[in-house]
Amino acid sequence: MTTASLKVYQAINAVQRALAKEGISKDRQASGFGNGYAFRGIDDVYNAIAPLLAEHKLVIIPRCVERTETQRPSGNKTLYFVLVKMEFDFISSEDGSKHVACVFGEAMDAGDKATNKAMSIAYKYACFQTFAIPTEGDNDPDATVHAPGNVQAKPKQAAGQPQQPQPNQPACEQVKPLATILADINKARNVDTLTAIRDYVAARQYSNSDISEFKQALKSRHDQLIQKRPAQANQQHGQSQGFKPLQSVLKDILATKTVHDLIDIKNYVFNVGHGEEGYTEHDFRIIKNQLAAQHDKLVKYSTKNPAPAVRPNLDDPIPF
Q1: Where is composition skewed (Low complexity) in this entry (predicted)?
Q2: Suppose 118 and one of 80, 84, 182, 204 were both cysteines; which one would form an S-S bond, judging by CB atoms 3.0 to 4.6 Å apart?
Q3: For 76-123, how does the pLDDT look when each residue is reduced to its tens digit (9 = 90+)?
């Protein structure tokens, strides 16, 4: 039996023809870094190809050939990096002929989902590459630029015409390479500098792999800067080591005269109180309630210093 007569390749080609008409658009938006980026999710792939596989009697059987896992600390938790080598059997149910595609998938997670994510990514890209799935279907790739989010796609300019600067990217500016950005992150002395670097990267075009490295470096440097704060907080409160007991902190709160003093105590508790020898969850609740009550008292009977509009919050989110 020749390759041309094998039903599996006829079925693959039939699925390709069907997907070429519609494609799978990048309708999903990733969050958590800058303005995010558009992508096609695994559910989009399942929804698009499942009826076509059934119609053309094509079966896809996954098989994990190899898996490696690396654990990396990130703040108070551990990130699991998983790399899987997957083989997918594309089998025709008519004559049993098959074609094997080998694809790698990698993912990270702070819980138990890293392997599942890596397998899903491998399946998604096996389908993208085997069926050559476009993003829009029957589109001229030179006619439009597919921008993420709600930005309208704009036609490409003809040769010889001056290129218009992107709205989020300054004109005539050379984008910093990956190594330079990572070096800037490692040299950052405060969180404000990290925020400026994050905004710089978010406003420019970098690959998804570069963005992933940026995020990890930003998070790691942020955690390093946060870990340096306990010593500073101890100095502000006249302590060279250790942390104040709960009753001492509550007395300090009641003795405050301004909201700014409350914020100093909040920062001290947040930075020093976490860890094996830190405060318990019950202690944190008591401190938070006392901070809120004292804040309301200071706002009602305001002093010379104006009070912020919001209460101190011990649950300040990490900015990355």
Answers
A1: 152-163
A2: 84
A3: 788 889 999 999 999 999 999 999 999 999 988 888 888 999 999 999
How far is residue 139's CA from residue 23's CA, in Å, rounded to a whole number? 9
Nearest to 72 by CA among 204, 215, 232: 215
pLDDT the model gives residue 143: 38
Let me know how many helices (H) and strands (E) the chain has, helices first.
Answer: 10, 5
Q: For residues 283 and 253, what is the distance between their CA atoms, to the nearest angstrom? A: 14
Alpha carbon 223 to its chain's center: 16
pLDDT tens-digit series, residues 148-159 = 444 444 444 444
CB 233 within 8 A of CB 268: yes
The reported pTM is 0.42
In sequence order, which residues have a C-beta less than 8 Å from that of residue 265 and are 6 or more positions away? 249, 252, 253, 256, 291
DSSP 8-state code for residue 297:
H
Helix (H, G, I), strand (E, B) or coil at 59: strand
Quickly name the fold that domain 3-131 has: Enolase-like; domain 1 (3.30.390)
Q: Calculate mean pLDDT across residues 128-138.
A: 76
Sign of CA dihedral 200, 202, 203, 208: positive
CA dihedral for 31, 34, 38, 42, sign (positive or negative): negative
CB burial readout 145-171, b (16+ within 10 A) else e = eeeeeeeeeeeeeeeeeeeeeeeeeee
Q: What confidence tens digit (pLDDT) does each residue in 15-50 have?
A: 999 988 877 877 666 554 455 556 777 888 888 889
Of the listed ranges 179-183, 232-236, 284-288, the one predicted with least confidence: 232-236
pLDDT tens track for 276-294: 556 777 888 888 888 888 8
Residue of 70, 95, 73, 18 whose CA lies nearest to 49: 18
